[in-house]
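The passage that follows is intended for readers who have already worked through the single-chain material. We present the inputs for a multi-component assembly, then the predicted structure in tokenized form, and finally a short commentary. You are encouraged to pause after the input and sketch how you expect the pieces to fit together before reading on.
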Amino acid sequence: MKTFHDLAKNRRSIRKYLEKSIEKEKIDQILQTALMSPASKRTNGWEFIVVENKEMLKKLSECREFGSKLVADAPLAIVIVADPSKSDVWYEDASIASTFIQLQAEDLGLGSCWVQVHNREKNDKETAEDYVKNLLAIPQNLRVLNMVAIGYKNEDRKPYDEEKLQYDKIHWEKF
Ligand SMILES: Cc1cc2nc3c(=O)[nH]c(=O)nc-3n(C[C@H](O)[C@H](O)[C@H](O)COP(=O)(O)O)c2cc1C
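Having made your guess, compare it with the prediction:
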């Protein structure tokens, strides 16, 4: 039986995808999981924009000079947006939802990768966030955290090795 520990161990960022679209039931399940992610004071200030259109995925992949190109070859990206007037910790809420999305994708046999938008530049004139907002007609008052690219895996990544984890990061009782 696959346990949560197996899921955490096997989830690695996948940046190469098969040219195969994701079944609607799987997309729906991922989105349901996103909607079940915990948010501060249950404000649920996040919004999820599901993108499958190839041309739009290509445009989204150009939101940064490096680190976002993989989106062009993914069959799906979910852009995670949040309303700072609903939650003063929108960043945390949206990050948790993104992680839920990635783990649900892994559980469905899909690969995924977080692509950062917030705090990144497209070029010296425009932020990645403004570029994405424009492309997807996102209201000005909302913030874009990231996108999660998802697809069937077209690369093998080694699972984490419990023997090699950074146990020195763990502090008991006191730093
Ligand atoms: C906040 C955050 C931002 C990230 N941004 C990017 C990104 O813009 N592009 C990318 O290819 N990977 C990005 N990643 C993926 C990380 O590079 C990856 O999770 C890390 O190297 C660990 O590898 P693993 O996911 O395979 O365990 C991001 C991950 C996090 C958590």
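Commentary: Residues 12-13, 15, 67, 70, 113-116 surround flavin mononucleotide (CB under 6 Å). Helices lie at 4-10, 24-35, 54-61, 90-107, 128-136. How closely did your sketch match?
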